[in-house]
């Protein structure tokens, strides 16, 4: 429980804040402030390095199966992975990408997120494929 909480907190403060600073202007939600974007890119690199190093010896963030930590971090990365984290940016984070692919290939993730298209060449985001995300809130969970 404590390790999961720690990773969720890390996700909120160390990953989501700089990713939003970088991604939201790309989505047209906020005007871009070049100085803030430059700082955000550096902060994202630091956060991804922490995750990549942790995932060198771990298949999942905590324990031996998907936890809330994996869900929170994976979902926080979705827009960044599709809009700004191009191939060159992702290259140093092989462990993180292995984990991200593992998470997003799970049927439970795919049912909510759909097919995740990674950002291609520098400056070119994936086609606006994140229309599937708002459905996440609209679909009530079905009882078995």
Please write out the topology.
Layout: H1 2-26, H2 34-54, H3 68-83, H4 87-90, H5 94-104, H6 107-113, H7 135-138
Helix pairs in contact: 1-2, 1-3, 2-5
Would you give an account of this structure?
The chain has 144 residues and is an all-alpha fold. It is 61% helix and 0% strand. Helix 1 runs antiparallel to helix 2 (34-54) and helix 1 runs parallel beside helix 3.
Instruction: Kindly state the number of beta strands.
Output: 0
**Class of secondary structure makeup:** mainly alpha
Largest beta-sheet details = none
Question: Kindly state the mean pLDDT as a whole number?
Answer: 88
| Broad shape | globular
Q: Descriptors for this entry?
A:
single chain; 144 residues; mainly alpha; 7 helices; 61% helix
Brief summary of the model shown:
The protein has 144 residues and is mainly α. The protein has helices at residues 2-26, 34-54, 68-83, 87-90, 94-104, 107-113, 135-138.
